């Protein structure tokens, strides 16, 4: 047993649920006792005594203030034109409510707007950092496909969100980014504090943005926002609200420009494919020996997974999923090629559907000579990056339904067998690495990442837990790449690719807490699994960015299991191994106790170094999450050398794309 | 004849250094059993696309700063673990430095590794590249 373990007797303590709340009276009584110290004892003695008595007083336990559940359960109170009238913020909140905005994640700031949105009845969450809340909103949207909002104050709060707005942009998340922004009257004067030009800062990482400069047009620009997020290819929309807009007053709708209902300011009409093009695609697929569909996030956004299944099964077409969320074709299906990268290389036809973030040839394990069809809702993106044999403008769902109806039945036994063999090879490689990991763990008495993620896999998919229930996500370098190989997506919205394309290390935990909020509410494809815990595998490096949001998870009872791979370093430390004076920049203090930080934030904390310890801790964490709604951080102590291909082969290498473990496209 | 040569090579390279890699002196002595031909280069490119582009890029120049010390494969004079055909083979099969993983599991057939060696050499400047042989 290590010194660290013996120093951590409280690591199995339950979080909020098991910690009795200390009555405030006790402290008050202590202070009263202090006041009773006889004055004759002298000033110095009184000082010493007071110190002693205060130290001896019970430390108040972490507790959830009663105002949190009370105010969350209050009835909605949206603004009304009658009487006092509506503020600009309330007008905007009404539009958000009419548009079924799924949730908002924010930090205080932009007060008028966030209060109006919460009062309108939209599920709202307040957290610890704007960046974390932005990632949480992204996570909520990724596992539901719904528009979700994030908000921060002008200046510091808004700029803190930037990394995660960029991540959402790469993931094409329909994210509504809101921020207050001082007064129009202060523009160009550096008036008071926090003044800034926000819109230029989101250039390149948003689909649409606007500083609303006229209160009368707040509805009009709200409509712009939702039109952009709910039409074509989604993406973040950034609105900034000067005080003159948020606090404008309206006693009737006549002053508002374009005050139409949503069926007038946008349309649900979407492009249908021409039957000629569907027939062309069906012919190419039928003639191919080894066709594969790359099922991108557009298929998830448009909820086209049932039509995808029908089409794939009709002709034994292989399917590999891509995008920032996985599961719209199950990994455990016989036609899933998400774990069959070697088979992909022999595909003779690829059909990209809903692939918003388009790779270039060479980035996917597909032959340079493969024929390609791409189906996309927007004409101007067809032909970008990847040369096409057939480009089709269509909504993904309409195309899949048309294709499923057009294809005639066909068996491809040889192709199905090749996919199965390639999958078996991948599984064998994973098991080989697990075997090595077990040996390394035994040799070092530290937990190798291959063992860590195999244990997660076994708990979630082989232990009796419904293998479709737990939404997972992963991040970090060593931890993320290993975890990606073992986390499975067997139903829509089950697995979040936290680092998707933008490669941000760190927002993963906050993103998964946001995903957990969606599971708690049973939104969209999460409905059958309402209440299940979510699990995030992340790294010690990544934790720095969103560990504090464990407070948010506990506060809202979003059961989150955080498996924190602690190798005392940035996973990229080998880059410094041959460079003078560099290594110190890549290392942290060793054996840091993230589990104790978690306990300090009201969550459960566990510290483990062996497979047996980890297995038991993981089971306790899952049970506490499922039964009590508790969140847990498991500090998995490792060593940085596990990343080294030289000392502990195979070290770490990038996972094949597309499929399980892919992060780039 | 080719199969005999490959078999001999397998025996010759069975020795390992303390890192589990082929000793560098043995690697330097290795000679490729696979001629530098268009077919071999194409086969090597196919394997390269599957396994190598994440760090070295499709053009082999390793310009993506995901792995900052990934070798620019187009410049053999800067190779850190040797640029003889045997040393390149060793780097692929057994890994190199801290970050280059061993690919003997992913590329189990020795011939495929030699095809990758040939593809990599096809990226070199004319002055460093071996003479192209006719396909048989």
Structure in words:
The complex is a heterodimer of chains A (665) and B (136). Chain A is 39% helix and 13% strand. Chain A has a 7-stranded mixed sheet, sandwiched between helices. In chain A, helix 20 crosses helix 26. Chain A starts with a helix and ends in a 28-residue tail after the last strand. By secondary structure, chain B is mainly alpha-helical. Chain B has a single domain (21-122), classed as Cytochrome c-like domain (Cytochrome Bc1 Complex, Chain D, domain 2, Orthogonal Bundle), CATH 1.10.760.10. Chain B contains 6 helices and no strands. In chain B, helix 3 packs across helix 6. The longest helix of chain B is centred in the first third of the chain and has 14 residues, at 38-51. The radius of gyration of chain B is 14 Å and the shape is globular. Residues 1-13 of chain B have low confidence and may be disordered. Classes of the chains: A alpha/beta (665), B mainly alpha (136). The interface between A and B is medium-sized, with 32 and 26 residues.
Q: Looking at the structure, what is the overall shape of chain A?
A: globular
H/E series of chain B: HHHHHH
Question: Between the first and last Cα atoms of chain B, what is the distance in angstroms?
Answer: 14 Å
Strand content of chain B: under 5%
Number of helices of chain A: 26
- Give the low-pLDDT segments of chain B: 1-13
Rounded radius of gyration of chain B (Å): 14 Å
State the strand order across the main sheet of chain A. Answer: 11-16-15-17-18-20-19
User: How many angstroms separate the termini of chain A?
Assistant: 43 Å
User: What structural category characterises the helix and strand content of chain A?
Assistant: alpha/beta
Radius of gyration of chain A: 27 Å
Q: Got a strand count of chain B?
A: 0
CATH topology (fold) name of chain B? Cytochrome Bc1 Complex, Chain D, domain 2
Task: Report the helical percentage of chain A.
Answer: 25-40%
> How would you classify the quaternary structure?
heterodimer
Mean pLDDT of chain B: 86
Domain module count of chain B = 1
Global morphology of chain B: globular
Query: Can you count the beta strands of chain A?
Result: 20
Largest interface: A-B, 32 and 26 residues
Structural class of chain B: mainly alpha
């Amino acid at each position: 047993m290590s010194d660290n373990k013996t120093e951590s007797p409280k690591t199995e303590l339950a979080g909020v649920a098991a910690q009795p709340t200390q009555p405030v009276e006790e402290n008050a009584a202590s202070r009263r006792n202090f006041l009773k110290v006889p004055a004759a004892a002298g000033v110095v003695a009184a000082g010493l005594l007071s110190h002693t008595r205060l130290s001896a007083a019970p430390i108040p336990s972490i507790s959830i203030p009663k105002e949190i559940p009370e105010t969350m359960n209050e009835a909605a109170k949206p603004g009304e034109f009658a009487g006092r009238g509506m503020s600009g913020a309330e007008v905007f909140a009404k539009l958000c409510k009419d548009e079924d905005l799924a949730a908002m994640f924010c930090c205080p700031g932009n007060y008028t707007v966030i209060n109006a949105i919460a009062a309108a009845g939209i599920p709202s969450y307040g957290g610890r950092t704007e960046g974390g809340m932005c990632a949480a909103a992204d996570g909520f949207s990724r596992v539901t496909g719904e528009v979700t909002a994030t908000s921060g104050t002008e200046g510091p709060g808004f700029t803190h969100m930037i990394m995660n707005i960029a991540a959402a942009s790469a993931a094409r998340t329909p994210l509504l980014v809101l921020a207050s922004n001082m007064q129009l009257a202060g523009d160009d004067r550096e008036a008071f504090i926090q003044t800034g030009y926000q819109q230029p800062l989101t250039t390149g990482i948003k689909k649409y943005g606007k500083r609303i400069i006229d209160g009368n047009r707040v509805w009009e620009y709200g409509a712009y926002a939702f039109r952009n997020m709910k039409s074509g290819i989604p993406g973040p929309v950034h609105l900034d609200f000067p005080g003159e807009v948020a606090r404008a007053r309206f006693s009737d709708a006549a002053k508002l420009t374009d005050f139409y209902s949503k069926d007038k300011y946008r349309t649900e009409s979407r492009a249908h494919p021409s039957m000629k093009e569907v027939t062309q695609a069906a012919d190419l697929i039928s003639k191919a020996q080894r066709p594969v569909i790359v099922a991108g996030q557009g298929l998830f956004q448009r909820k086209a997974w049932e039509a995808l299944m029908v089409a794939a099964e009709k002709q034994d077409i292989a399917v590999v999923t891509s995008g920032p969320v996985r599961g719209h074709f199950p990994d455990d299906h016989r036609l899933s090629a998400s774990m069959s990268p070697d088979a992909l290389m022999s595909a003779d036809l690829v059909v990209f559907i809903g692939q918003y973030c388009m790779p270039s040839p060479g980035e996917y394990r597909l032959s340079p000579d493969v024929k390609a069809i791409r189906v996309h809702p927007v004409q101007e993106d067809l032909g970008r990056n990847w040369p096409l044999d057939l480009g089709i403008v269509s909504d993904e769902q309409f195309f899949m339904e048309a294709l499923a109806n057009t294809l005639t039945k066909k068996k491809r036994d040889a192709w199905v067998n090749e996919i199965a063999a390639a999958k078996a090879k991948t599984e064998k490689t994973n098991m080989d690495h697990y075997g090595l990991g077990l040996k390394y763990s035994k040799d070092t008495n530290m937990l190798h990442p291959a063992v860590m993620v195999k244990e997660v896999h076994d708990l979630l998919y082989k232990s009796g837990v419904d293998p479709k229930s737990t939404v997972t996500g992963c991040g970090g370098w060593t931890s993320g790449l290993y975890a990606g190989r073992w986390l499975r997506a067997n139903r829509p919205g089950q697995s979040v690719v936290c680092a998707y394309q933008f490669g941000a290390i760190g927002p993963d935990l906050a993103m998964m807490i946001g995903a957990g909020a969606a599971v708690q509410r049973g939104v969209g494809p999460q409905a059958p699994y309402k209440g299940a815990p979510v699990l995030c595998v992340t790294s010690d490096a990544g934790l720095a960015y969103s560990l504090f949001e464990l407070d948010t998870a506990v506060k809202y009872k979003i059961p989150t299991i955080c498996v924190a791979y602690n190798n005392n370093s940035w996973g990229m430390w080998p880059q410094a191994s041959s460079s003078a004076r560099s290594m110190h920049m890549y290392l942290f203090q060793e054996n840091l106790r993230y589990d104790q930080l978690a306990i300090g934030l009201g969550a459960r904390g566990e510290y483990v170094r062996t497979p047996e310890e980890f297995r038991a801790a993981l089971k306790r964490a899952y049970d506490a999450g499922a039964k009590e709604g508790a969140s847990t951080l498991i500090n998995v102590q490792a060593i940085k050398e596990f990343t080294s291909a030289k000392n502990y082969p195979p070290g770490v290498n990038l996972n094949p794309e597309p499929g399980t473990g892919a992060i780039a496209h | 004849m080719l199969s005999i040569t490959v078999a001999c090579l397998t025996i010759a390279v069975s020795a390992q250094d303390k890192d589990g890699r082929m000793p560098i002196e043995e690697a330097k002595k290795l000679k490729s059993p696979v001629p530098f031909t268009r077919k071999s280069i194409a086969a090597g490119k196919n394997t390269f696309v599957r396994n190598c582009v994440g760090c070295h890029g499709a053009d082999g120049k390793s310009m993506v700063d995901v792995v900052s010390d990934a070798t620019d494969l187009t410049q053999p004079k800067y190779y850190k673990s040797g640029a003889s055909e045997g040393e390149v083979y060793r780097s692929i099969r057994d890994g190199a430095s801290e970050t280059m993983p061993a690919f003997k599991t992913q590329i189990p057939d020795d011939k495929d590794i030699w095809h990758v060696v040939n593809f990599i050499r096809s990226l070199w400047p004319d002055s460093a590249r071996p003479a192209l042989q006719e396909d048989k």
